[in-house]
Amino acid sequence: MRRQAVPGILTLRGRYVGAAALAAAIFLIDSFTMLSSAVAVLYVLVLILIGDTASERAIRVTAAGCIALALFSFFYGHDEDISLDAALRLLFSLAAILGATFILLQRHGDRQTVASQAELLDVTSDAIFLTDTTDRVIYWNHGAETLYGWSFEEAYGQDPHALLATRCPQSRGTVRAALARDGAWEGEVVQTARDGRAIHVFSRLRRRTEPGRYEGTTLETNTDITLRKAAIEALSQSEQRFRTIFETLAVAIWEHDLRPVKAELDALRAQGVDDLALHLAQHPDVLRRIRASIRVTDVNSTGLRLMGVSSKEEFFTHLDGFLADPDEDFIGFLLAFDSGAPHFQNEATVRTRQGELLRVLVAFNFPPAEMLDRVQASVLNITERIRVQEALQRTRSQLDHALRAATIGEVSATIAHEINQPLAAISAHAAAASRWMDRDPPNLAEVRASLDAAGEAARHASHVVRRVRSFMTKVEPERVSLEVDALVGEAVRLVQHEIAANGVALTPMLEAEDLTIEGDRIMLQQVLINLITNAVQAMQATPAGERRVAVRTWRVAGGVGIEIRDSGPGFAADAAQKAFEPFFTTKANGMGLGLAMCRTIVNAHDGEIRIDPPGEAWGGRISITLPARGNLRQP
Ligand code: ADP
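Above: inputs. Below: predicted complex with adenosine-5'-diphosphate.
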């Protein structure tokens, strides 16, 4: 009964020693002095001295010892002449020793009972302590030691609420008043453990009113609820967080009670319905009944706004109130729910409070059966997206149409531009043939030559048309091996007539030395013809004897360089900037397609074309680089 014992002045060992000394003293006085009184009665003191703390056996042994000593002293002091007085004194003494022993054994039994009850209190993990009428600790169980960190010895005699710095929602006076009035008080308090830890406890105080040693004491039982409180707090924070998300999410959320749906579906199954889809399709009344049974239990602010409702109280009470879908969509939902699928997502149409039809994307996460009373669906308004998509689709088809029209326009414009030159050549050759015919006699050899030249120009025109068409419709250019100098020479020949007609001196400087490139002969010739024609046209205002065009080819690292320069005025500042843009022209009858076309063709051959700054005595300068065969960039 350690925790309940008030620490005594003497230790157990001290008591035994004292008791032995006292017994010896009594024995000596009783045996060897002439005192004719009941000295042996004093053995009761020996028993009292050890009685409080000794075990049952120790009490019995001590009592037997005391009786033996008393008897020894009696027979030692009285040989044969035993007087009645002396015998009576012995009897009284023995009676006193036996009586004291009996009482001690009884008290020992009581103590044992209390001790075992107190041990029970030690088994509980609750902190239990007892305070006396002055609020000082007189009992402090093992649970209190473990919870607070102070041992019984340390807590003994202290004011527990000062020791534990108890913080109570009510004042100490109020608690005391409740104890005096009702004999009990309970509530949550916060206490501080020895290591400074704050402990939340549920505290039950009982004032003991039964008469006796513990009357007026207070028994306090404290249950540690720190973890429970933290868990509740965490739960409440998580609930709060969920609420905030729920309310502020940009997606509408509706909460439904799906238990009636489950009950209906279970009932159908119990009736032996195997093919649910078929059954629902054949019984639209069942479908509608199930739909009407779905209650809406909550909705977030986004949901309210979406459906044109100002408060939750005014929101639709049943799903049926705003679902405007045909039955098939709802069957899809029921089948997914029935199959035990974890999710369901579908497009649906809802009708707002104002009657507007909205297309929405609905996603359900089906919870376990026991949580079907609150099933959330997220609802995303996709009406606007669908509208935009449709508008985009319309615009795209209009654009396609416009593009087709523009392509046709561009193709025709380009063809017109590209065949101008061969047409002019044909007409010039035809006129020449006619003149040779008019000679007397007609020079038939020249007529034939002119007609051949006209024929070649016509064939070239027809090739050009075919190539331009396929090129504009994004057909890859042909790739054949071409010797650069031969290619350039051929192009020069095709514009020879125009050059001569304009009194231009053309100097070919072909130094590419058998270098070959891969490409489309007609397209590349067109580039050169365009550039030479531009050069000729640029020199309209140049005096007749000063019109010069130089066409140069040379090797560069990895390919060939081709340059066409003229003695005209050169590119105007803005023309040099924009010359390659389609439809840019500074000429009265120009189409602005020549250089744009040249760049497209050169780029399609992995080459580059650029306008160079005018050199001394030269005006317009354009150069092209093309990769040599084998040096083509990989697409
Ligand atoms: P177009 O010949 O129909 O005008 P181009 O695309 O061939 O179309 O040429 C665009 C413009 O570049 C011309 O209008 C002209 O201003 C300028 N340009 C082209 N070649 C030369 C050149 N050799 N010298 C000066 N300017 C030129």
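The chain is about 50% helix and 20% strand.
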